[in-house]
Design goal:
Rossmann fold; alpha/beta; single chain; globular
């Protein structure tokens, strides 16, 4: 399975990619903002999972998620963000996020969210 990791922080992208490797997802593509993420998806990225930061330049994660869902993209999305307010979590879920992970997080927390988002039978 291929995952798209979207965050404006290269450090956070590295942490997420390392944690994904721990759950058997070793094929990843990185994007530094929502515009790059949509470009990667539109190039036929064939992603099985998208991990999406909320606060980014050019296009926020929530706007990226909205654009994906409006285009009919059903790829599981986990919002990975510092936005911990309940209203933000609810907004993300209503917009189409499959799960929500608040930074900072442990690799185990990320692994649990990934397994939940893609199903217990994955990765594959």
């Amino acid at each position: 399975m291929k995952a798209l990791v979207v965050d404006d922080s290269m450090t956070i992208r590295r942490i997420v990619i390392k944690a994904l490797g721990m759950v058997g997802i070793n094929e990843t593509t990185e994007a530094g903002d929502g515009v790059e993420a949509l470009e990667a998806v539109n190039r036929g990225g064939d992603f099985g999972l998208i991990l999406l930061d909320w606060n980014m330049p050019k296009m926020s994660g929530i706007d990226t998620l909205r654009a994906l869902r409006q285009a009919g993209n059903t790829t599981p999305v986990i919002m990975v963000t510092t936005e911990a307010e309940k209203s933000r979590v609810i907004e993300a879920i209503k917009t189409g996020a499959n799960d929500y992970l608040i930074k900072p997080f442990s690799p185990d927390q990320l692994a649990a969210k990934v397994k939940n988002a893609i199903g217990a039978g994955a990765p594959g």
